[in-house]
Amino acid sequence: MYFSQLPPTASTPSTGYAGQVPRECAAALGAILATVDFGRKAMVNAAHEGLQASALTIFPPETFDGVDPEGVGRSLASLILCYFAAQGNQTTQWIEPDRGEALRTLAVHLTPTGQEALLQSFENPQGDNAFSRYFAHADSQYFAQADAYGLAGHLYFQRAGTPLLARSIDKTPEDASAQAAADYLKAADLFTRAGQPGLAGDAYLRAADLYTQTHQPLRAVDICLKAVDAYRGAFQPLKVADACLQAADLFTQTDQPLKAVDARRKAADACLNAAHGYLLAGAPGLAGDAYLRAADLYTQTHQPLRAVDICLKAVDAYRWAGRPGQAGNAYLRVAKVYTDLRQPGLAADSYLKAAHTTRVDADAHPAESRYALAAAAYLHVAKLYTDLGEPALAADAYLWAAQAYTRAHETGKALAAYQQAAEANEQAGRPGLAGDAWRSVADLHTELGEPLWASGANARAATAYRSAALGGNDVRQSLSAATYYLMAAYASQAAGESAGAAAAFIMAAEAFMDEDLPAAAAAAYKRAEVYSLAIDACAKAARDYLEKDDLLSAADAYRKLGFLLRRADQPRDEVDAFLTAAGLYARAREYKAAADAYVEIDDFGRAAHFYEKGGMFELAVRAYEEIYRFDLAAKVYRRVSAQAAHDGERTQFDLLAKQMSQRADIHLARYGRNL
Question: Is the peptide bond before 97 cis (omega within 30 degrees of 0)?
Fold first, then answer.
């Protein structure tokens, strides 16, 4: 990049400062700036370090106070680099300190002489000082013209905020405040000219505060509105909102309610703009905060449905940010709005969503206290639904409360919530769900060492399940009657009611037969110890599976049939059932199952064959040992040895085969033949 050199110094020495940089300094600055690549941090740092000493020589020694020459040098170097980066449309991200910090530092260290020179440069751009020469011109070679305005703005801003200057000994507090307000306004004007509207907005608000303190609200509100415009120009929507709210308060003080409402609505709109900006910037958590602030303002300005809509946007933002707890707070605000609007149903729904998000937060950050909070929220929702005459919704909320209390290890409260869920489900005509809740009550009583209470809860569960099985127009259920009878039977068993359990198992079996589920019916009849009916149902199941060519299921059914026939003391039919099962297992290549079926009827020879066929040679050997066919067991080991992959394995199996042959010889010698 080409940078023009400073004009040569005057050939005639001057006793005063002529606003010109010494020739050697100009050459040094030009050389450094001509080689800077602003996209490379190391090169920018090197240039910055090289510029610091030379930059100080641009100004007469009396310009700065000498307290922090290094800081002043760094600040001047930063301004020079920022100016040249801007000239080449290059980045300034590696320049430290940045422009704002550099200007603040210089303003602090300006001497009265330096301050006077700076301010004179605005009145006389052709004046004989460094500020006129290098700041006041649009074609300045080292500093941006806007930096002069910015520096002066910081000067006025700092002077206005300095108590010693604002309340000097020759001024009353009122005069000092008036002077400070004027300085802030001057700073705002200079910041605006410097292209720093955000700083201008800050100065305007400081001035407005002073006017408010000195009981000039009309003047203060005018200044607040200027701050609003300044922040809009700086694209700082949250500060726009702050300024609008300050103006709204002043409008209220001056008895202008409509303007106050309008200002608050503008503040809400500004918060909404901020939220959208945060979303685009990938900061959903901050977006959620801004949405909630907007929602509050819409509520204050009598736009409740708008507030609800914005709260729901906050929920989405917080979920995106992984902050379920904050999403729950947003739902609570929605619930409050609906409560104020006297829409209890919608309020209850919102409280439920808040409770769900609290539970999600607890799952994300497991802690007993978090689950207890979720449980309490669910209980509140349950009571709301109860008051609304919605027992089914109340029952669901009680159930969620019980589950949360369980995670919080508060067993007593969980038990009470389960019982409330059971009773609410009964009231809602959902006996099946009531039965589930009563079983949970029974389990917790058992856990607490209260068997009598557990028995009573199981009895109530059985009653509820029977009601579900019977059905009716007023009963809402999700499972079949047979399933509910079966659940009633198990609950009766747990309650120690054997007769009731048997009756329920029989009813379940009959219902399963009606549903053409003979396998399930057989299991239920077996539980009731009605073996004749269990045998008939199981045989039907087996035939049905065969008709469908489902060999494996048919084999399982015949195996179960064999056990049922054994319990019914029908040995011949039992053998036929196990033989059929074994044959079907073999056809399905389930060799172990086939072998096991043969073992049930003591057919160890065929069992051994299928064990070996399935690669289970140890089981095959044991089966041959059961019938004293040690010779055949030895052959198994020899076949395994021949298939072994390693010499060690072959040696081991050969030894086992030899031992089995010896046992065969001993058996032959003792009994004369193999049995």
Answer: yes
pLDDT at 369: 83
| Secondary structure class of 19 (helix, strand, coil) | coil
Asked if the model's pLDDT at residue 629 lies above 70, the reply is: yes
Q: Which residue has the tokens 């198994």?
A: 636
Token duo for residue 214: 């000195």
Q: How many CB atoms lie within 10 A of CB 318?
A: 26
Decide if 231 contacts 196 (C-beta within 8 A).
Answer: no
Buried b (16+ CB within 10 A) or exposed e, 619-657: bbbbbbbebbbbbbbbbbbbebbeeeeeeeeeeebbebb
Q: Are 211 and 217 in contact (CB under 8 A)?
A: yes
Q: Tell me the per-residue pLDDT of 227-281, one tens digit each, with 9 for 90 and over.
A: 999 999 999 999 999 999 999 999 999 999 999 999 999 999 999 999 999 999 9
Q: According to the model, what pLDDT value does residue 263 have?
A: 94
- Residue 667, token pair as written in the block: 């058996």
Write the CB contacts of 609 (distance below 8 Å, at least 6 apart in sequence): 595, 620
| 27-55: average pLDDT | 79
The domain limits of the chain are 429-506
Exposed, middle or buried: residue 144 (CB in 10 Å: 0-12, 13-18, 19+)? buried
Instruction: Provide the residue count of the chain.
Output: 675
- List all residues 6 or more positions away from 305 whose beta carbon is below 8 Å from its beta carbon: none
